[in-house]
Amino acid sequence: VVGFADITDDGELDHLYVDSRYQRRGIGAALLKTCEEYSKNRGLKRLYTYASALAEPLFLKAGYVKKEDVRVAVRGAEFVVAYMEKSFVA
Predict the structure, then answer these.
(1) Half-sphere exposure for 1 (CA within 13 Å, toward CB)
(2) What is the residue-wise DSSP string for 52-70?
(3) Whole-model pTM over 0.85
(4) What are the DSSP calls for 9-31, one per residue?
(5) pLDDT tens across 65-90, in order?
(6) So what's the pLDDT on residue 90?
(7) 13 forms bridges with which residues in the sheet?
(8) What are the backbone angles phi and psi of residue 80, rounded to the nearest 5°?
(9) What percent of the chain has pLDDT over 70?
């Protein structure tokens, strides 16, 4: 497995991971496109995510809009992530 992604029922792109040895080869973009198509077929109007600083450029390139920076705590460590959304309605 070189990467994976998953979406919650309400449209949160909860995980998008590509092994560091396989990054910058289009795998993340392909996973993201597949998630978007799946979501549209399920009738979702948007996807949203909390992107790390490393993942943020991928989402921006795919048309996601950064709404705000959010502080999150994971196992006692605090991180700043970008809350981002992409709408499927014109």
Answers:
(1) 7
(2) -TTTHHHHHHTT-EEEEEE
(3) yes
(4) TTSBEEEEEE-GGGTTSSHHHHH
(5) 999 999 999 899 999 999 999 999 75
(6) 58
(7) 7
(8) -105, 125
(9) 99
